[in-house]
């Protein structure tokens, strides 16, 4: 993989390559981003989690210099993202999940196109090899599979030797095999000393890739830390999931069961957060027997980032 | 019954969709209404010109010349402008008169002596639809001057402007075809395509790199001009092989006009792509603008035959100036200096439309507000 640009790490003094403080963006009376602050260091992968409409995309676009904020202090590699936009754009790489690359260009043509935007681009042949796209070099983008497109998007993001990468849902829509392959690529970016800010809807992805995670909703960062820290701080000790079938259940009664700290119902499933799974399970079995509940699909599990997300936002990650 | 209900529900769905979509509502109802009002307003003006200006070169001065003059004036369709041949030919070239009737010396004597039908000459400008129509009307009128139809009193020889004498029928189509093609290549190809790239984030992604707006605009315009050049070569090639189309009389001048016209067309397409709020509306708007410019450019509907209020609109359209400049420079071989106002309109159109496109793209794509 390509080496970091020599100047990148030295810009901005320390190794903080993304330094956003107090970003605010309003649309009329709607506040899309409300005092957003985040720092990402060289060699660090930070995940930005939030439901749709939380303000993730707007915050990232302000950091990238693609959107004018109402208030902000944001420096990328030491350069002001708005006033020194051109300097910033030469130092960042962006893989937009929603953005379509020109459909009728071939892979090689596209890499050459983007290479032409930079002073010292990576050779297209190197990127083709690194992202296993050599056989698809002469294939038009519209004929690529989802995984190939995502790999190409990453290759395009890297062609200008960026120190900072913004990856918007880099593995959405991929099968597990393609997702894991792309994770390896992203982890290599960290080893190369780049700062990576990614958004994702996959808990497993956040836990696997991210050194730190920031949970965002209503334009604000609600919590920030390593996945383990967040689970320890915001997640329940454990959870019991059950499917009551067609029978109605009284959530208030379930909340009275021993050690239960919270009860939630969604999509026909009931989730009991508990501080003592064995005690809750025994009481639940008795409760079910008395009321004739089938209790099919009963599971216990440890807390996850999804539980953290639920606790912080009141919503599931993929809502 | 169930099937009828399904049909009814689907019908309601479609009607609601059309009525609730502002763009669909506009193009389904408001736009046709505007067109109706436009044409209604246009035709309520002074209408089509009824007295067509025609030059008269009377080198005979005899009874037969008097008879022809009286017949032309009494027809009510023509307004005679007397003068010498050179002066009237200049007026014909500039469009001030639509045809020139030349009555040669000795015409009356020849007819009076019974020495066969006398010959009159009609000079006309084949690059002008209006002149072509006037020539036909004049010819019919003069040839009908023998009321008994026993033997022809007069014969008519039509002779085009000297500068157009060697042009073939297909040559006259070329300005109109070129204008239509350049507008289509520019507006129809660029408008919907760039709007789609804008909607899909393709442009935004490109502008997240060091790519500059000027570089992108230049690449886009030049790329489409390269395509336009290819199209021109194909068009001229086919025309030369199949229809004996000639090379432009003023080749460098023609290339300058085509370059400016192509830039103006692409610029209009870019402005449409940048200014439409939704990408889906860029296609219909491009079709409407391209069609309107092609129809009102003077190559299909002659300016002089349009209602007066419409004439004023047509004469400020870039397509009108493309057609006019090509007729003068490509077909007649006039120097570029004779069409400077038209070149100015084309350059201004390109500059304004490109400026508008760049301004909008900067605000909505490069650094959105």
Descriptive tags:
heterodimer; A: 319 residues; alpha/beta; 6-stranded mixed beta sheet; 4-stranded antiparallel beta sheet; disordered N terminus; B: 369 residues; 5-stranded mixed beta sheet; 14 helices; 8% strand
What does this structure look like?
The complex is a heterodimer of chains A (319) and B (369). Chain A starts with 15 loop residues before the first strand and ends in a 6-residue tail after the last helix. Chain A is elongated. Residues 1-13 of chain A have low confidence and may be disordered. Chain A is built from eleven helices and 14 strands. In chain A, a hairpin with a 2-residue loop joins strand 12 (260-266) and strand 13. In chain A, helix 8 packs across helix 11 (305-313). Chain A is α/β, with parallel strands linked by helices and 319 residues long. Chain B has 369 residues and is an alpha/beta fold. In chain B, 65% of the residues lie in helices and 8% in strands. Chain B has helices spanning 2-20, 22-43, 63-74, 85-94, 107-112, 129-143, 169-199, 202-206, 213-243, 251-275, 279-295, 308-314, 318-331, 340-366; strands at 52-58, 78-82, 99-103, 118-124, 154-160. Chain B has a five-stranded mixed β-sheet, with helices on both faces. The longest helix of chain B has 31 residues, at 169-199. Chain B is elongated. The chains are: A alpha/beta (319), B alpha/beta (369). Chains A and B meet through helix 2 of A and helix 8 of B.
């Amino acid at each position: 993989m390509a080496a970091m640009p020599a100047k990148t790490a030295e810009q901005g003094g320390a190794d903080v390559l993304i330094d956003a403080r107090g970003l605010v963006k309003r649309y009329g009376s709607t506040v899309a981003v409300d005092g957003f602050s985040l720092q990402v260091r060289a060699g660090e992968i930070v995940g930005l989690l939030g439901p749709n409409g939380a303000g993730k995309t707007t915050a990232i676009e302000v950091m990238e210099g693609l959107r004018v904020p109402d208030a902000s202090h944001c420096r990328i590699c030491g350069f002001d993202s708005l006033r020194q936009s051109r300097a910033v754009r030469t130092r960042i790489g962006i893989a937009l999940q929603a953005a379509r690359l020109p459909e009728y260009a071939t892979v090689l043509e596209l890499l050459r196109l983007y290479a032409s935007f930079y002073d010292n681009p990576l050779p297209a042949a190197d990127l083709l090899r690194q992202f296993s796209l050599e056989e698809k070099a002469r294939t038009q983008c519209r004929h690529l599979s989802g995984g190939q497109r995502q790999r190409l998007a990453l290759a395009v993001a890297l062609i200008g030797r960026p120190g900072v990468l913004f990856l918007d849902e880099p593995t959405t829509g991929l099968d597990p095999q393609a997702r894991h392959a792309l994770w390896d690529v992203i982890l290599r970016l960290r080893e190369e000393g780049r700062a990576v800010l990614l958004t994702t809807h996959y808990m497993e992805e956040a836990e696997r890739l991210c050194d730190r995670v920031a949970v965002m909703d209503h334009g604000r960062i609600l919590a920030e830390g390593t996945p383990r820290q967040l689970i320890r701080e915001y997640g329940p000790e454990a959870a019991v999931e059950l499917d009551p079938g067609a029978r109605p259940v009284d959530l208030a009664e379930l909340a009275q069961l021993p050690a239960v700290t919270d009860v939630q119902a969604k999509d026909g499933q009931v989730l009991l957060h508990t501080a003592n799974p064995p005690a809750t399970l025994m009481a639940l079995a008795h409760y079910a027997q008395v009321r004739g509940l089938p209790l099919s699909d009963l599971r216990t599990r440890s807390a996850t980032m999804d539980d953290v997300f639920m606790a912080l936002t009141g919503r599931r990650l993929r809502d | 019954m169930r099937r009828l209900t399904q049909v009814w529900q689907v019908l309601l769905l479609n009607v609601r969709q059309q009525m609730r979509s502002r763009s669909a509502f506009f193009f389904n109802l408001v736009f046709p209404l505007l067109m109706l009002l436009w044409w209604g307003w246009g035709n309520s003006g002074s209408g089509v010109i009824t007295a067509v200006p025609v030059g008269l070169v009377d080198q005979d001065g005899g009874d037969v010349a008097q008879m022809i003059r009286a017949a032309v004036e009494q027809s009510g369709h023509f307004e005679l402008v007397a003068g010498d041949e050179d002066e009237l030919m200049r007026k014909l070239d500039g469009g001030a008169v639509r045809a020139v009737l030349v009555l040669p010396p000795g015409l009356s004597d020849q007819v009076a002596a019974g020495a066969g039908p006398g010959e009159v000459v009609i000079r006309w400008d084949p690059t002008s639809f209006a002149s072509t129509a006037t020539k036909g009307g004049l010819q019919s009128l003069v040839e009908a001057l023998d009321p008994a139809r026993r033997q022809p009193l007069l014969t008519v020889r039509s002779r085009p402007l000297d500068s157009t004498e060697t042009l073939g029928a297909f040559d006259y189509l070329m300005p109109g075809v070129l204008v239509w093609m350049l507008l289509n290549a520019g507006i129809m190809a660029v408008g919907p395509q760039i709007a789609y790239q804008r909607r899909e984030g393709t442009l935004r992604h490109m502008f997240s790199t060091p790519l500059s707006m000027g570089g992108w605009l230049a690449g886009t315009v030049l790329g489409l001009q390269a395509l336009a050049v290819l199209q021109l070569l194909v068009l001229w090639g086919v025309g030369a092989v199949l229809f004996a189309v000639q090379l432009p009389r003023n080749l460098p001048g023609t290339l300058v006009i085509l370059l400016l016209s192509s830039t103006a067309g692409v610029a209009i397409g870019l402005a449409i792509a940048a200014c439409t709020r939704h990408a889906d509306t860029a296609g219909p708007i491009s079709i409407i603008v391209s069609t309107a410019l092609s129809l009102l450019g003077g190559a299909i509907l002659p300016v002089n035959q349009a209602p007066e209020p419409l004439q004023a609109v047509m004469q400020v359209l870039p397509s009108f100036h493309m057609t006019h400049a090509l007729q003068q420079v490509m077909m007649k071989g006039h120097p570029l200096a004779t069409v400077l106002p038209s070149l100015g309109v084309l350059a201004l159109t390109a500059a304004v439309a490109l400026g508008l496109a760049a301004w909008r793209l900067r605000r909505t794509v490069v650094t959105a507000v």
